[in-house]
C-alpha cells in the first residue's frame, strides 16, 4: 500500500485569478459515451471534449469541467501576437498552434480550447494534437509544469523517464509496466505544486506509443494496432497492467541520453544541472516566454529541482540494451528508497 504522503486522491487544480473557471455545460455527458460532448479526467482536471478519448478516464458525474474544448473556427491572431516557432502565435492570454492536415488550436485562459478541424483529419491525429501540445499549453496557463516524460508509480513515489523524442521514454515505460509497476503518464507528465510547494505528478493518458523495433524488443505484437500516423511504423498500444488513478508524490527523474562509451552510466545531477534538465525538457518552452509566464515557470522548475532526485542515464549510442537499462534504473531508485522517503518527510515537516 502506498504511504499517504506518496499518493493521494487527485484534486482538480484550482483556477487562478488570471484564469477563472468557466461555466460548465449542464448538458455534458459524464462518461465515454459520445453524443457530441465527452467528459474525461486527465492531468488533475476535468475535460469536456468534442470527441470521445478512450485513452482517458471517464470523469466523475458530479464534477464540473475545468476545461472545455469545442469545434470552432480559430480566429486570426491579433497584431500583437508573437511567433513562437512554426505555426505558433501567442499573446499573454492565448496560444495558437496548427498541424497541417489535422487541426488548428486556440488555447486560452487556461480553461478553453477551440479546435478547427481539417476536413480529412482522423480522430486519432486530432486526439494526439489536443492531448499533447494542446494540453501542454493549457497546463502552462494553469500553473503546472508539463515535462517531456513518462512516469510510473514506485514505493518511493513517482519516477519519471524524461528525454527528447526518440530517447526511449515509452520503451522504458513499457518495460517497467511489464515488471508490474503502475502507469502514471506517457510522454507528457504534468507536475503540480500544492499549497505547501510539494510536487505531485498527475495521471495522464492511459495508452502508450511504440515504434515497431521497440515493440519487437518487448515482445509486443503490433498486428491490428492503430498507427500513430498512417506513414509511421509507430503504434498505439493499450495498457493491460495497473493504472494510477490519483496524483503521486514526485520522487525521482531519470534523464535519458546517449554517449560514445560502451557502458550504461548513471550520474546524479546536482545544483544548476538539475534545474537546466527541467528547462530543457519542458513542453513548448519557447511559448512560455512569449506568454510572459517565464518567471513563474522558473520558480516552479526551481521548486521541483530542489525536491526531486535527478539522474542522467547515458547508454551507448545505437544500443538500447533495454533489460540492462531498466535493471540499472530499478536498482538505483530501489537503493535510494529510504533517502527519497526521508526527503518527502523533510519537505512535509
Question: How would you summarize the topology of this molecule?
Answer:
Elements: E1 7-8, E2 38-42, E3 45-49, E4 57-58, E5 67-71, E6 82-83, E7 88-90, E8 94-99, E9 103-108, E10 112-117, H1 123-142, E11 145-154, E12 157-162, H2 169-178, E13 183-185, E14 188-193, E15 199-202, E16 207-211, H3 212-218, E17 234-238, E18 247-259, E19 265-268, H4 272-280, H5 285-290, H6 294-307, E20 309-316, H7 322-335, H8 337-348
Parallel strand pairs: 3-5, 5-10, 12-18, 18-20
Antiparallel strand pairs: 1-18, 2-3, 2-4, 6-7, 7-8, 8-9, 9-10, 11-12, 11-13, 11-14, 14-15, 15-18, 16-17, 19-20
Helix pairs in contact: 2-7, 4-6
For the record, what is the CATH homologous superfamily label of the largest domain? P-loop containing nucleotide triphosphate hydrolases
CATH class of the largest domain: Alpha Beta
CATH topology of the largest domain: Rossmann fold
Average pLDDT, all residues: 86
The dominant shape is globular
Number of helices: 8
Span from first to last CA? 22 Å
- List low-pLDDT spans: 1-5, 9-35
Count of beta strands:
20
Question: Pairing-aware structural class of the strands and helices?
Answer: alpha+beta
What's the architecture of the largest domain, going by CATH? 3-Layer(aba) Sandwich
Amino acid at each position: 500500500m502506498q504511504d499517504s504522503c506518496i499518493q493521494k486522491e487527485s484534486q482538480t487544480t484550482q483556477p487562478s485569478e488570471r484564469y477563472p473557471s468557466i461555466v460548465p455545460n449542464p448538458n455534458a455527458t459524464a462518461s465515454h459515451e459520445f453524443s457530441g460532448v465527452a467528459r474525461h479526467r486527465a492531468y488533475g482536471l476535468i475535460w469536456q471534449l468534442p470527441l470521445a478519448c478512450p485513452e482517458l478516464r471517464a470523469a466523475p458525474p458530479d464534477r464540473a469541467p475545468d476545461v472545455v474544448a469545442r469545434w470552432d473556427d480559430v480566429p486570426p491572431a491579433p497584431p500583437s501576437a508573437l511567433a513562437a516557432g512554426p505555426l505558433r502565435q501567442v499573446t499573454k492570454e492565448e496560444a495558437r498552434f496548427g498541424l497541417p492536415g489535422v487541426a488548428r488550436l486556440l488555447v486560452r485562459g487556461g480553461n478553453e480550447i477551440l479546435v478547427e478541424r481539417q476536413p480529412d483529419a482522423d480522430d486519432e491525429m486530432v486526439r494526439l494534437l489536443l492531448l499533447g501540445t494542446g494540453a501542454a499549453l493549457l497546463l502552462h496557463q494553469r500553473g503546472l509544469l508539463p515535462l517531456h516524460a513518462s512516469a510510473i508509480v514506485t514505493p518511493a513515489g513517482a519516477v519519471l523517464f524524461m528525454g527528447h523524442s526518440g530517447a526511449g521514454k515509452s520503451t522504458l515505460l513499457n518495460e517497467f509496466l511489464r515488471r508490474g509497476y503502475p502507469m502514471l503518464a506517457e510522454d507528457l507528465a504534468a507536475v503540480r505544486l500544492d499549497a505547501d510547494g510539494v510536487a505531485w505528478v498527475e495521471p495522464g493518458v492511459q495508452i502508450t506509443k511504440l515504434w515497431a523495433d521497440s515493440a519487437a524488443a518487448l515482445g509486443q505484437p503490433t498486428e491490428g494496432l492503430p498507427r500513430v500516423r498512417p506513414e509511421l511504423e509507430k503504434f498505439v498500444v493499450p495498457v493491460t497492467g495497473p493504472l494510477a488513478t490519483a496524483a503521486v508524490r514526485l520522487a525521482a527523474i531519470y534523464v535519458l541520453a546517449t554517449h560514445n562509451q560502451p557502458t550504461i552510466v548513471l550520474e546524479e545531477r546536482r545544483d544548476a544541472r538539475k534545474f537546466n534538465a527541467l528547462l530543457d525538457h519542458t513542453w513548448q518552452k519557447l511559448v512560455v516566454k512569449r506568454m510572459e509566464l517565464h518567471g513563474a515557470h522558473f520558480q516552479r522548475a526551481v521548486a521541483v529541482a530542489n525536491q526531486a532526485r535527478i539522474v542522467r542515464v547515458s547508454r551507448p549510442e545505437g544500443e538500447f540494451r533495454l533489460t540492462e537499462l531498466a535493471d540499472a534504473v530499478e536498482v538505483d531508485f530501489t537503493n535510494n528508497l529510504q533517502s527519497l522517503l526521508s526527503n518527502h518527510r523533510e519537505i512535509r515537516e
